[in-house]
Write a structure and sequence with these properties.
The complex is a heterodimer of chains A (238) and B (408). Chain A is an alpha/beta fold. In chain A, 36% of the residues lie in helices and 27% in strands. Chain A has eight helices and ten strands. In chain A, β7, α6 and β8 form a beta-alpha-beta unit. The longest helix of chain A has 18 residues. Chain B has 13 helices and 14 strands. In chain B, 55% of the residues lie in helices and 19% in strands. The chains are: A alpha/beta (238), B alpha+beta (408). At the A-B interface, α2 and α3 of A face α1, α10, α11 and α13 of B.
């Protein structure tokens, strides 16, 4: 129906180390349509995070092509890439990555700062987003005064503030307990279902992956399996 | 990014490390303070020299009698009384010379009522006031008639007035005693201040040169003076006037070719120029030395900014991940450096001006804080902020988002 939001072809990523080049991604082909909810699983070192960083325009591939929303990312300059990270993509990290000395409200509003939005408008929208993640009363708290789950909600609110079409989450529940993990996943699920935001997340936990409708399995820098979550998970656990 | 937001972000970053920001600024405070103070001292010296030069009179020569030679011993210039009042009259006729004043000087005790004072009495002619560009606070100079009749009239300087007369007394018309003889005060000179060599020019009494010769200092060498002051018609005529005077005096003193002059002519204006250029060299040197501390302050800023960039690598990564462009990061760090240097230099200007005030107040030294010195220090400090802030800021802006994010 729609043009794919992410189209990746023959993507390679090498790291040069003292012991010679290490091939982290070895020819990834992946297409993700708007509105999908995709989980990426795989053992440590299988290249999931590297893939996410490239998808999030934080890193560049060694070779291969990446079209985001029909645009060849390789042709974009540093300023356009910053704009893509600012408006088109919301990135959620395992370690939250909030600015430590900045209030929850200002952390949420930070992307708007770089979008050139005035202070009053930033504040208004940050409070709106905080309300959506249920943290209005923590607006003036610093990140270290909040629990891990609350911090991740702040980070999600921040990722959402410029109304991106795509949210990339790299092990968003990796630092959280089970109950909090489910709360966070329900938040993602709601965003996907109610607003049609495309979500791609990396996780180690099958319980977390179950929220996604599609599962991509990475092994040793390549995609081994790609299909409906339930079917793949059912087969993986005999 | 909006300018106001940029300012707020930078201010917050500096506020997060108050002690460090303050210490970094201290470098600039001291640097700018030193520049402002040193320039003030240099300007003060220049001001004093210029004032002394202005008080001396313009396009001046001093003509000294030759050295005495007695039994192979040569005495200093002016010891042989070769210059006469007739020489002075002849010099006054020269085309390039505007005026000439013979001077016979000596120390004398002066008394008025219960007060007495020892001062330098100059015997001279009415041209002296014009040559020295010396105006009157009250009364008038003596004239040619006084000169011819060697009248006992005196013109007094401010220091003498202060020491001989009680406050509020008008000295003009009063009789004072110079070496026991009565003189009528006919004029009171306007204050002139210190000369180039630091003498108090107002500590003087002027009388007609004939009176000084005949009635005051005895008559050891009748009709002679130790020195004369001459003024050229203009600055361009200085060289011509000097040549004319030399030729005339050699001729009048019957000095044959190859024989040494029995007089010497000194160009006071050239001397003054030397003093002025020495003062401006002093000013420049002081400023240059102080600038070194400004430079050190700038390096301090660069140092701290480099530390700050390294420390905040992760923050830079986060900002880039959510959409900060390299130029946003660059401006933020550059602005932080600029804020440090500008705030530091503001405090430095206050410190320097305060120190200059203390120097004027407690050390008897003229210091002049000019708005230009302040502006210069300020602009240089801002320039240093940008110059030394740029390298760390560019380093921050060139970080790759993923590498910055991974930094621990």
């Amino acid at each position: 129906m729609n043009a794919p939001l992410i189209r990746i072809e023959n993507l390679y990523k090498d790291y040069v180390t003292g012991a010679g080049p290490v091939h982290v991604l070895k020819g990834i082909d992946l297409t993700i349509d708007p509105g999908e909810f995709v989980a990426i699983m795989g053992p440590s070192g299988s290249g999931k995070s590297t893939f996410m960083n490239i998808a999030g325009c934080l890193d560049t591939p060694t070779s291969g092509s990446y079209w985001l929303d029909g645009q060849d990312v390789a042709t974009l300059g540093v300023n356009r890439l910053a704009e893509v990270r600012n408006r088109a993509i919301g990135f959620v990290f395992q370690g939250f990555n909030l600015l430590p000395r900045v209030s929850a409200e200002d952390n949420v509003g930070l992307p708007l700062l770089y979008a050139g939005v005035g202070r009053a408008e930033r504040r208004r929208r940050a409070l709106e987003l905080l309300d959506r993640v249920g943290l209005t009363r923590f607006a003036h708290h610093l990140p270290n005064q909040l629990s891990g789950g609350q911090q991740q909600r702040i980070a999600i609110a921040r990722a959402m503030i410029n109304e991106p079409r795509l949210i990339l989450a790299d092990e968003p529940t990796g630092n959280l307990d089970t109950v909090t993990s489910h709360e966070i996943m329900e938040l993602f699920e709601a965003l996907n279902r109610n607003q049609g935001i495309t979500i791609v997340l990396v996780t180690h936990e099958a319980d977390v992956a179950r929220y996604a409708r599609r599962l991509v399995h990475f092994v040793d820098g390549a995609i081994e399996e790609d299909g409906p979550t339930e079917a793949l998970l059912a087969r993986a656990v005999p | 990014m909006i300018a106001g937001d940029l300012l707020r972000e930078s201010w917050r970053a500096l506020g997060a490390n108050r002690m460090r920001s303050a210490l970094t600024m201290l470098g600039m405070v001291i640097g700018v303070g030193a520049v402002v103070l040193m320039l003030a001292i240099g300007q003060g010296a220049q001001f004093m020299v210029n004032q002394a030069i202005a008080s001396m009179g313009s396009n001046l020569f001093i003509i000294l009698s030759g050295a005495t030679t007695s039994g192979g011993l040569r005495f200093g210039a002016g010891t042989s009384p070769t210059l006469t009042l007739e020489d002075a009259d002849a010099i006054a006729e020269l085309p390039a010379v505007k005026a000439v004043a013979p001077v016979a000087a000596g120390t004398a005790q002066v008394v008025h009522g219960p007060n007495n004072w020892s001062t330098l009495v100059h015997g001279t002619n009415p041209s002296y006031f014009q040559i020295r560009d010396w105006t009157f606070a009250a009364g008038q100079p003596f004239d040619e008639a006084d000169l011819r009749s060697a009248s006992r009239v005196a013109v007094v300087g401010q220091t003498v007035v202060k020491n001989l007369f009680s406050a509020g007394v008008n000295p003009v018309g009063r009789i004072i005693r110079i070496d026991r003889s009565p003189y009528q005060v006919i004029g009171e000179l306007a204050p002139k201040g210190q000369s180039l060599d630091g003498r108090d020019q107002d500590d003087t009494i002027l009388v007609p040169v004939t009176t000084a010769q005949r009635k005051l200092f005895g008559n050891q060498f009748p009709g002679t003076v130790r020195f004369m002051m001459a003024q050229a018609r203009s600055a361009q005529d200085m060289k011509r006037a000097e040549n004319e005077m030399e030729d005339l005096l050699r001729q009048r003193h019957h000095i044959g070719p190859g024989q040494d002059d029995d007089f010497s002519i000194r160009n006071l204006t050239a001397l003054a120029k030397t003093a002025a250029s020495a003062a401006s060299a002093l000013s420049f040197t002081l400023g240059a030395i102080a600038s070194i501390s400004l430079l050190v302050g700038g390096i301090g800023i660069m140092n701290i900014m480099l530390v700050s960039v390294t420390e905040r690598t992760r923050e830079i990564g986060i900002r880039m991940a959510i959409g900060a462009r390299p130029r946003d990061v660059l401006s933020q760090f550059l602005l932080e450096a600029l804020m440090l240097s500008i705030l530091g230099s503001l405090a430095g200007v206050l410190l320097g001006a305060g120190a200059a005030w203390l120097v004027t107040r407690f050390v008897s030294m003229t210091v002049v804080v000019t708005i230009w010195a302040i502006l210069l220090a300020f602009v240089v400090a801002a320039g240093i902020g940008i110059f030394f802030g740029f390298y760390p800021a560019r380093k921050a802006a060139r970080l790759k988002p993923i590498e910055a994010l991974r930094y621990e």
